[in-house]
Input
Amino acid sequence: MIKAILIFNNHGKPRLIRFYQYFAEDMQQQIIRETFHLVSKRDDNVCNFLEGGSLIGGSDYKLIYRHYATLYFVFCVDSSESELGILDLIQVFVETLDKCFENVCELDLIFHMDRVHYILQEVVMGGMVLETNMNEIVAQVEVQNRMEKSEGGLSAAPARAVSAVKNMNLPEIPRNINIGDINIKVPSLSPF
Amino acid sequence: MSPSVPLQEMIRAIRSARTQCEERGVIQRECAAIRAQFRQADNGGRSHNLAKLLYVHMLGYPAHFGQMECVRMIASPRYSEKRVGYLGAMMLLDEKQDASLLITNSIKNDLSHSNQYVQSLALCTLACMGSAEMCRDLAPEIDRLLRASNSYIKKKAALCAVHIVRKVHELGELFAPAARSLLAEKNHGVLHGAVVLITELCERNPETLERFRKTVPDLVQIMKGLVISGYSPEHDVAGVSDPFLQVRILRLLRILGRNNEAASDAMNDLLAQVATNTDSTKTVGNAVLYETVLTVLDIKSESGLRVLAVNILGRFLLNNDRNIRYIAMTSLQRIVGTDHNAVQRHRGTIVDCLKDQDASVKRRALELSLALVSATNIRSMMKELLLFLSSCPLELRSQAASGIFNAAERYAPSQRWHIDTILHVLTTAGGDVRDETVPNLIQLITNTSELHCYTVHKLYRALLSDISQQSLVQVACWCIGEYGDLLLRGECQETEPVQVTEDDVLDALETVLQSHMSAPATRGFALTATMKLSTRITDNVDRIRSIVSIYGSCIDVELQQRAVEYNALFKKYDHMRAAVLERMPVIEKNSPGHTNGESTREAVKEVQPAKVKQAETLLPQQPANQVCDLLDLLGGSEEPLQSNPAVGSTVPVLPISTSSTAGGDLLDLLGGLEPTPLTPAPTVTVYEKSGVTLTLSREKQSDSGLTVTLTASNSTDSDISSFTLQAAVPKVNLKMRIRISYTSQGSAFQDTVQVDSFPEH
Output
């Protein structure tokens, strides 16, 4: 079982935290700090498995982490999960984020925290691995996002109007209409 | 409009705060705005506010006021609001909060919603934070979804069922048939969920396990499909077809095949195939191989397969990738109990991993090395382990030290080696050893009487070089106190002698006493050692006297008490001093966990020690027929008598009995500082004639045995020699017949006495 999934940056600021077991808020922050402390000490060419976090679970739990550019992805798992499998799962999750956000970077995670949660919900559910096929995950997430957009409601109207017009295929407006000798100048309107 | 835009503005505002204080201000303002919005009845931007609240919650600020809002959002008909509401429920609520009960109804309704994504939201939330009551309520609903829905919902329902089974074990029965039928699905996601569910059911309930053994052929079939089938692009990860599913199935096969011949036979072929066909150049291939190896080693597989598995692990150990090496050591740890010899073959590689830079690899290597220590390799292994101890990371030190001690105790090839090893550990890592080490070591030293000289020399040298390691200093002080005369004598067979004067020794002890690095317990050791030296040395007794009297006004109460009592020993009870400070007896080996030997003997009136010692040696020499005579005398008892006399009675050879707490608890001896003996247990005088008195006391009645102490004393002016004692007891009733014989003033005496009743405790 996966006990927690934490994403934080090189300075320890949390970018996504998901606990599959209840912890009080201050406990959660303490766990994040402790995990960051343990993970940041690690060299770059050592193995990706860490033991020794005492707050989050004791002897049966280990931390499996991967470092991508400025972010640490840490999964806290117990012995019922295959360690190498989880390592691959982190890779799958990151690739999925990449597909959903188009060249994902830390800013995407910061400003679209809710979307990242929804993507994660398709991968891990209740502490257990749900789906590992990237295409499947991406497809489901797309459908759900479309559903959400489609019921935007009143407040969505202006934004939708703008996007609708942008996509409208206006035929080319001729600048000068030449019918024989009459030269009517069409006033130039600013493009929509 | 997605909730993201106002959320992004808030995030931007928080990020632009330059100090922590500013950030807190921004967040407080935002939270106040959110709270105000929540209180308003209905507004279009509800989902934004909850999203903002969740962001704030992630940063660590309190967000409990959003709980009711989550409940309201979940009940909303709009998908965007439901989505955020469920997310909020998963982050902010748990079964301990009252608000979680309120969402039960919403979840129930949403589980039968027409939109599958709403159903999935409900399933997800239930799997994350469903309480036992909620699970019980909704279990039939989940079962229905397991049978009749699309694959997207089925896979989610399967994992939800796992959560339900974890919360309410009895419901496992409900899901077993549905789980069984799910194995026929083609969709890998559903298969994966089904396998997880079956694994959980089998682990919980052995009867279910029996029933699911019948599915082994189906599982084997599925695996074969994955392994042999051609390239399938949708499930392929780096050349391996759906490795996650393969790993899950292998794990389930392991559980089903454990301890079962038939099931294990059915999977042998498959495991061999997977082991040979899987590509091990990528991580995913290794994950599958690793799982296969674990399965092979756990079920009743044939020996060829086992050899193959251990060889694969050996290959993993030599892999360059540290992750693989770590994994290999973890799995070797699991099989070191059963396949010890196979793992021994890789001992060299494992010991090399002790020197790896990576702390995780070191930790694994340490545990494995300690498990591999045996009588044959103890010397070489210990060398490596001691080398490791001197350079190991701090968090592993105490584990390494106690592991080394255990190994040394079990396999020490010689006493001297044992003592050397322990001293080495104390010098390198003395601060990290456990507390029992000191009494254990002292016990060990006392029991090896031939090495006393060697030990005390070594300890003295260690003490001179470094007095910061408390355990080492304590042991050293104790030894110097006990065997100071051997130290001063200067000669020693085992090690180079060093000329030590009495002043040097006293200087060393005084340094320990006065150093600020010494713990109070250590100073107690040093003071007692100084005191003991007063009988071992000849010239500097006055110096000792002055040290002791100085500490009579020490602030530390413990030290002060000791010093005062020692002072009294100098002044009023000087005649007793030699006897009190005599060498300690050989300490009985106690079971681990008892740091104190329990005091078994009482203090006794002053008896010439030397004479009484002889009796001990005479006892076994008694001819058998005399013993039989004695037994006949017991007549009248129905049960057969024991042939060995002298059960439980001992003639105390020491003038003073001590509690065997190493640590010089002479305080116990000095009790009330009276010459009369302490009698903690009731005693009975069984014989008193011409100055010879025998008293019996009964102590420490345990379930299986009873300790009776017999004390013999002589109150005449003349010596008694050749004191012999025989005793006979019947098996059942507690009676005793005692015969004594001795020589006094040239004439021999003999007497017999019967004891019918023992003093009650």
User: Anything to note?
Assistant: The longest strand of chain B covers residues 720-728.
